[in-house]
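Worked example

This section walks through a single chain of length 269. The input is the sequence exactly as stored; nothing has been trimmed or padded.
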Amino acid sequence: MVLITVAVTVYLSWVGYTYYATPVVDRFSHPQYDWFKSSGTFGGGLGVIGTILIFIGVVLYITAKKYRYLERWVRLKYLLEFHIFLCTVGPIMILFHTTFKFGGIVSIAFWSMVLVVLSGVIGRYIYLQIPQAVNGRALSLEELNGMRNEAMASIRKQEQIDGDIYNTIMTFDPPAGWGLKPILEGRKRIKKVANALANTSLSRPEQEEILKNVRTEITLKRKMKRLDLMQSLFKYWHVAHRPFALIMLFVVVLHVGVAVFYFGYTWEF
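Given that input, the structure is written out below as tokens.
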């Protein structure tokens, strides 16, 4: 989906470069003015398709999350990814629909859209920090502890693991904070365990199984340490994300209404 997003952006930039690079006052004399202008076949089409993509992305995700009518076939995580994809490609198309002219009511819609997209990226990061069940439900602290206990019980079954290796796993305490430091520290500890396991009589598949459980243990420890914070941030994020989305929706509907019913614009193709 990332490749599709990049491909769409590159294509739109390439196909309309000469028009978009022309100063606004000179565009009327451009040979493809009627094609690329906001009310033209191509420019207007970008606005229509972009709006439809955003509408589908928002309605599908919100209704599927609330009523769970797709959970038998699609995990909420993948619906979120699809929601982000449609609500990224859609605004990109609308950006080219504006032909990079921002003024009046259009500027309000555009900057609201930018804020929605940026806040969506932030929200996705926060969401991924909260451990989820298969159906997308946030896991409780008790459930996370249960998963940790299962991982450690599997490790303890291996008699070849001595006390030093076990302590190396159990004594790891992820550093507080954001960024790469907690992740890098976790990887260093996993590498240390892997080197210790290489000196045992365990087979390669057995070592890989242990390392898989060690990764689970370290990842869960890191996420549990920030669970309350992430859940609080996610609630506050909703407070910020929804108003921007509602403002954008209201202004877009107003913009379309004025363009169609007042100015009489239609998409001819």
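What to look for: The radius of gyration is 25 Å.
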